[in-house]
From TrEMBL:
<dbReference type="GO" id="GO:0006790">
    <property type="term" value="P:sulfur compound metabolic process"/>
</dbReference>
<dbReference type="GO" id="GO:0003924">
    <property type="term" value="F:GTPase activity"/>
</dbReference>
<dbReference type="GO" id="GO:0005525">
    <property type="term" value="F:GTP binding"/>
</dbReference>
<dbReference type="InterPro" id="IPR011779">
    <property type="entry name" value="SO4_adenylTrfase_lsu"/>
</dbReference>
<dbReference type="InterPro" id="IPR054696">
    <property type="entry name" value="GTP-eEF1A_C"/>
</dbReference>
<dbReference type="GO" id="GO:0016779">
    <property type="term" value="F:nucleotidyltransferase activity"/>
</dbReference>
<dbReference type="InterPro" id="IPR027417">
    <property type="entry name" value="P-loop_NTPase"/>
</dbReference>
<dbReference type="InterPro" id="IPR009000">
    <property type="entry name" value="Transl_B-barrel_sf"/>
</dbReference>
<protein>
    <submittedName>
        <fullName>Sulfate adenylyltransferase</fullName>
    </submittedName>
</protein>
<dbReference type="InterPro" id="IPR000795">
    <property type="entry name" value="T_Tr_GTP-bd_dom"/>
</dbReference>
<dbReference type="InterPro" id="IPR009001">
    <property type="entry name" value="Transl_elong_EF1A/Init_IF2_C"/>
</dbReference>
<keyword id="KW-0808">Transferase</keyword>
<dbReference type="InterPro" id="IPR041757">
    <property type="entry name" value="CysN_GTP-bd"/>
</dbReference>
<dbReference type="Pfam" id="PF22594">
    <property type="entry name" value="GTP-eEF1A_C"/>
</dbReference>
<keyword id="KW-0548">Nucleotidyltransferase</keyword>
<dbReference type="InterPro" id="IPR044139">
    <property type="entry name" value="CysN_NoDQ_III"/>
</dbReference>
<dbReference type="InterPro" id="IPR031157">
    <property type="entry name" value="G_TR_CS"/>
</dbReference>
């Protein structure tokens, strides 16, 4: 583990890559202020938004803007029970574009954090310098690790309240490094900061001369964007078929097109592909889009594929790169985060698995273990998974599914669990590999 100045640029100047990161923190760690400071100092707030903050500060007799109110609107929606449970904000600097997934920190919202984390490249976990490590901070780091995030930024906030003490920061850092040694992060960056004063968020400030590492924004600008492993572009070609069309244009009346969004990788005209689960091989004859014909397509484009041979392809099938197909089985091992207030049922309830564009009936084994995300211990002998529990199970599905492990390909290594009776989403799963055996399966 290894431990820029902000500015705007126009999108037309040069292409910029996109980094998705999530933020998590316990109550009163200062997460709202940090996000507000980051957006304000990176010049990512509109003038009318800043004017509104200034008017609010003036009414309250404050000399400075209260940047915690930047996210007030979205927090208000959460408190009213509206379906927005993860707040997304975007901004850009001269070097990179960013999407922030602001996740709630309470334990009862574990599922919301999982939602934000599954699409993130970096996790930013806040720690209150006055409180040191709380159980919830460990939970946040463990969840980020569980969903495959390999870059962690530990933002030690409120350094101004402890006199910018280097020894206190070092104690927090050393304590977490001991915990993190049992996780799988490739890079952990510790940053002392004061979101309230602006130290080490975008600007360095003048209160932390002993710290020589990056600011938060610099750390985000320098972070790796996964490509070779788990990234949509670096992974092999995967194309879940959303719809089968029969265009009526001249010369195409009898030719089927297969519509969908490229989940990962890319494919070119002439490439050999395989249709799963049948295993039939053919070649790409044409790639069509609303804007015209392409010679090549890649994730995340939405296209229509035409194949050289008349093979049987249906909605829910997957067209993949023939040289590097995924596994195709009726059982696999998965880490499941249970989201429902009703515990996972092994016998009485019927569940569906939605994987890509395919939905199939599923049964779960008795959990092999439940992860204690405070201690990282594996609790064996549990009978089921309750709300916000994370555990490893074997999933048995009615029809064969093509899958990759989540660590290799997020797009085809994840699924959601649906209650067949209520149609509620009750779980989220990350495929770990081949089915564990033996196990007791529900009857």
């Amino acid at each position: 583990m290894a431990a820029s100045n902000a500015g705007f640029d126009t999108p037309e100047s040069h292409p910029k890559d996109l980094l998705r990161f999530m933020t998590a923190g316990s109550v009163d760690d200062g997460k709202s202020t940090l996000i507000g400071r980051l957006l304000h100092d990176a010049k990512a707030l509109m003038d009318d938004h800043i004017d509104a903050l200034a008017r609010t500060a003036a009414r309250r007799g404050l000399k400075d803007l209260d940047l915690s109110h930047v996210t007030d609107g979205l927090q208000g929606e959460r408190e009213q029970g509206i379906t927005i449970d993860v707040a997304y904000r975007s901004f850009e600097t001269a070097r990179r574009r960013f999407i922030i997934a602001d996740t709630p920190g309470h334990e009862q919202y574990t599922r919301n954090m999982v939602t934000g984390a599954t699409n993130a490249d970096v996790a930013v976990v806040l720690v209150d310098a006055c409180k040191y490590w709380l159980p919830q901070s460990r939970r946040h780091a463990c969840l980020a690790d569980t969903v495959g995030i390999r870059q962690l930024v530990v933002a030690v906030n409120k350094m101004d309240l402890i006199g910018y003490c280097e020894a206190a920061f070092a104690h927090i850092r050393d304590e977490f490094l001991d915990f993190a040694s049992r996780l799988h992060f490739a890079r952990v960056t510790f940053i002392p900061m004061s979101a309230l004063k602006g130290d080490m968020v975008v600007e360095r400030g003048g209160n932390l001369p002993w710290y020589e590492g990056p600011t938060l924004l610099e750390a985000l600008e320098q972070a790796d964007i996964p490509g070779a492993v788990g990234g949509a572009h670096g992974a092999p070609f995967r194309f879940p078929v959303q719809w089968v069309s029969r265009p009526g244009a001249p010369g195409r009346a009898a030719r089927r097109g297969y519509m969908g969004r490229v989940a990962s990788g890319g494919v070119a005209v002439g490439d050999e592909v395989m249709v799963l689960p049948s295993g039939r091989r053919t070649h790409v004859e044409e790639i069509d889009t609303h804007d015209g014909v392409l010679a090549r397509t890649q994730a995340p484009q939405s296209v229509t594929l035409y194949l050289e041979d008349d093979v049987d392809v249906a909605r829910g099938d997957m067209i993949v790169a023939a040289p590097s197909p995924p596994a195709v089985t009726k059982a696999f091992a998965a880490t499941v985060c249970w989201l429902s207030s009703e515990p996972m049922s092994l016998r009485r309830r019927r569940y569906l698995i939605k994987h890509g564009t395919k939905t199939v009936s599923a049964l779960f084994s008795r959990p092999h273990y439940r992860l204690n995300i405070a201690t990282l211990e594996r609790d064996t002998g549990v009978a089921t998974l309750a709300m916000n529990d994370i555990g490893r199970v074997t999933v048995h599905v009615q029809d064969p599914l093509p899958w990759d492990t989540y660590i290799a390909n997020r797009a085809t290594g994840s699924f959601i669990v649906i209650d067949a009776l209520t149609h509620d989403t009750v779980g989220a799963g990350l495929i770990e590999g081949s089915a564990d055996a033996p196990e007791a399966l529900a009857s």
